[in-house]
């Protein structure tokens, strides 16, 4: 998890003052974990530039009530919820990088490995190719390790921890952006600061430390993404009194929070009521 966090910081140029050093370290760390370093760096950067925008955010874009399909009623039942959570924890990361599931809607198929993917601009395409080559080399290396040590060894020492890490990362990120109190905006109302403040810090108990406090410092991370994780607690402490009620925190135990958010945050719908706010959307689950 620490290696992942450092790779993420390299992508934000938060690891060192030297962009080339950041990209080199980040590339090796993430590629070694079978993550597409440059591809995700760019999509993640766009997530930071468009947080909580229903039209332009890159990941965990909630569905509008109007775009729900016939499976929605089934997925909105307790077994459906359990199914969604299980998929999120196990395949969530793969579904996102391979098929852009829950990502921004593009005119054509988008994924993190295709240099021609609509996620990327022309200047980024070469680095997507570089990412693919790095992943192929890693795969070949893993094949060689499997031949030397045995496949079971590789699964236990490498793939099992990887599955756990990606499971955690997806849950952590999803919970940072999914809560009844977090609004989403369409293009008429969205602006960067509103989006950055539409994030919430969580409390994972003892795991906060194990997860390098990415869990309870996400609001600060969205405001200033060049702060490295080892200063994020200090930064969070400093921004809390400035943000006041705009700082969002929920200490509900994580398993309970996962079930609650899967229940309550099924889709978003436009703000209602007498003084309804145009362009502002809230989570709901009443189909
Ligand atoms: Zn980030």
TrEMBL record:
It is found in: Membrane. Keywords: Membrane, Oxidoreductase, Transmembrane, Transmembrane helix. It comes from the Eukaryota. Signal peptide: none annotated. GO terms for biological process: lipid metabolic process. Residues 3-248 form the Fatty acid desaturase domain. This is Fatty acid desaturase domain-containing protein. Belongs to the fatty acid desaturase type 1 family. It comes from Artemisia annua. PANTHER family: OMEGA-6 FATTY ACID DESATURASE, CHLOROPLASTIC (PTHR32100). One of its GO terms (cellular component) is membrane. The chain crosses the membrane at residues 82-102, 151-175. GO terms for molecular function: oxidoreductase activity.
